[in-house]
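FORM 7B: Structural annotation worksheet

SECTION A. Query
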Amino acid sequence: MSLLACFLVIPAFASAPLPADSLALSPLAEFLAPAPAATKVPVPPVADADSLLSYTYVEVGAARNDVDSFDENVDTYYLRASLNLLKLFYVFGEYSNQSTDFANTDTNLLTLGGGAHLGVLPSLDVYAELGAMFSDVSSDANDLDGSEVGYRLAGGVRYLLLEWSGGGLELDGALGTMDLDNRLGSDDNPTFWGFGARAHFIKFLSVGLAYEKIEDDDQILGGVRWSF
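SECTION B. Predicted structure
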């Protein structure tokens, strides 16, 4: 072929565009193309884990209060029931009978109220509750005899320290105040705090022991609880 023919043929081939599909499918294009970004699958937010600590239960127990102001013990027997609502709230009712040798005094006390609890961890709850108190006091002392209405406000923590099959060991602490005239104690408007431990068995049965400091008075409580 003559030199002139080469000059005429080569530009014709060079100016002809290659099909787009052939470029995309070429091995060189596949090698140079950036790797596709990994598809990000949206991860839904993790909901708060359900608490392992029940707020639906029935409990019976007894307490002894060493009252500082008249140097006598007050013996108490109580029944408490609680019902959990909407995984966050609960309502409760408690009846107790208190008696002491001081002026032959006997008190029937009813507390009705509600509260809220929040599971910080599956084994750790914080809670707060408010109850209305209704007392009926029978006493040889005229200044104690009669009926009164008051309130009790408290907050605290519950922590399941150890777990085993069907239960575990729970620790708890509380802080609060109450206002009730003619109550069997050193003060009608005391601040109180306390702590305790509870052993849970076979999923629904537990026994607990607690100590409370109610202003200047010391109280020890023990109870058996059926949880649902």
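SECTION C. Observations
The helical segments are 3-15, 20-24, 27-32. Confidence is low (pLDDT under 50) at residues 1-16, 20-24, 37-50.

SECTION D. Sign-off
Analyst initials: ____
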